[in-house]
Amino acid sequence: MSQAYNPPRRAPRKKLKMPLFGNMGSGNSNQGEKIDWGGKNFTKLVFIVGILGLLAQMFLPNLWAEKMYDTQSELLDLDLDGSIRKKYTDATNPNDVHYILVVKQKDGTRRKLDLHIADPVFFDQVAVPQRLKKASSSLDVLVTRFSKPDTTLTIKFKP
Questions:
Q1: Which residues cross the membrane (predicted)?
Q2: CB-based contacts of 156: which residues, under 8 Å, 6+ apart?
Q3: Has this prediction a pTM greater than 0.70?
């Protein structure tokens, strides 16, 4: 019997290398300059980055949140001189509806008013493009309207 043809054996392919995971089992190849991206301490690095991510997720939303003016004393002490930018309600709990106004002051700061303990009549009578002026020891708000004359509205609180 004659033997079957065996093609000549070629050299094995070069193994893939990934930057963070080393040679991935490619053996010892001393080609070029080696860059160590963490080596033995890679798991420690991943653990530290994970812990920093969790801490940032816990603390940054509280640091970036805007101050919400919602109590009667805060609204009484508040000084407003700006225009309404947003007006919306938060009715996730139907028993406790939050009426929220976002007012942009003339100096560029934003004030977020939550009128959930106030009578909603004031919230119903103001709209987004209007300007508000309020002194700091009064609940009377001067509302500048475009189609009607300026009106003074009073924020009343529920008993």
A1: 45-65
A2: 118, 119, 121, 122, 139
A3: no
Cα dihedral sign, 26-30-33-35? positive
Half-sphere exposure of 116 (CA within 13 A, CB side): 17
Q: Where are the domains of the chain?
A: 16-65, 68-154
The share of the chain scoring above pLDDT 90, in percent, equals: 43
Answer for the pair 112, 87: CB distance below 8 angstroms, yes or no.
Answer: no
Is residue 75 packed enough to be buried (19+ CB in 10 Å), middle (13-18) or exposed (0-12)? buried
Q: Answer yes or no: are the C-beta atoms of 130 and 84 closer than 8 Å.
A: yes
DSSP class per residue in 65-77: SPPEE-SHHHHHH
Q: Are 116 and 127 in contact (CB under 8 A)?
A: no
Q: Quick one: CA dihedral 145, 148, 149, 151, positive or negative?
A: negative
Q: Looking at residues 145-156, what average pLDDT do you find?
A: 88
Is residue 139 a contact partner of residue 155, using CB atoms and an 8 Å limit? yes
Q: Which of 126, 86, 82 is nearest to 104 (CA)?
A: 82
**Tokens at residue 12, please?**
């094995």
